Amino acid sequence: HLYITSISEYGEFLAIACAPLSGIGNSYVFLWDMNATTWNQCIDWGEGVVQVIEQVEGKLIGISYVSSLLENAKIVFRQYAGNIATTFLTLRSQTVYTSGDISAGSCNLRQAKQKINNYLYFLMSIKLNDTVQSGLWKIGRETPDKPFALSFDRAVVNDTALTATAILYNFFIYQDYVFISYQTG
């Protein structure tokens, strides 16, 4: 009843993020030491579809997409460090999800990710404060004693607004360059 959405190293384990096939219910992250024939630990990752999982500074960071026909979509950021997955940030889009229509304020989280210098980069489109932010985002922190923070890193097409039917696909960071694939129309 689950499908795999993302994987990551986590210490000596492989973290395998899984979401419910029905789209309803909680996601789970399985920790597997790759020696046993079954997983070693199952972590309840909470409500929504966990799309991205990655280890950042010894913590397992997961980003989930939560949608409903009755309320606005939201993105939930959780961290895990040995006992329970706790939420450290929630972003709520200003409108209800409408199948990839960025200009209408839908919320779109991609499974694409890349970790560079203890920052987790990922693609997301979301309408916040009456503005659609579509592009590359990152999570990280200045020092290990500070909380994790989210920032919008780069817009698609050098800050040019995307069309209503634009869909983000993937990205690749190379030195100071970011290549983002997307589709319009």
Topology at a glance:
Layout: E1 2-10, E2 13-20, E3 26-32, E4 41-47, E5 49-56, E6 59-66, E7 74-80, E8 85-92, E9 108-116, E10 119-128, E11 131-140, E12 149-155, E13 167-174, E14 177-183
Antiparallel strand pairs: 1-2, 2-3, 3-4, 5-6, 6-7, 7-8, 9-10, 10-11, 11-12, 13-14
Task: Describe the fold and architecture.
By secondary structure, the chain is mainly β. It is 0% helix and 61% strand. It contains no helices and 14 strands. It is globular, with a radius of gyration of 16 Å.
Query: What is the count of β-strands?
Result: 14
Question: Beta-strand level of the residues, as a percent range?
Answer: over 45%
Q: Largest sheet, if any?
A: 4 strands, antiparallel
The backbone outline, from C-alpha atoms, is globular
Oligomeric form of this entry? single chain
Q: Which parts are unreliable, with pLDDT below 50 for 5 consecutive residues or more? A: 97-105
Determine the fraction of residues in helical runs and give it as a percent range: under 10%
The count of helical stretches stands at: 0
What is the residue-mean pLDDT, rounded to a whole number? 85
What is the structural class?
Answer: mainly beta
Strand order of the largest sheet: 1-2-3-4
Terminal CA distance reads 34 Å
What Rg, in angstroms, do the CA atoms define?
A: 16 Å
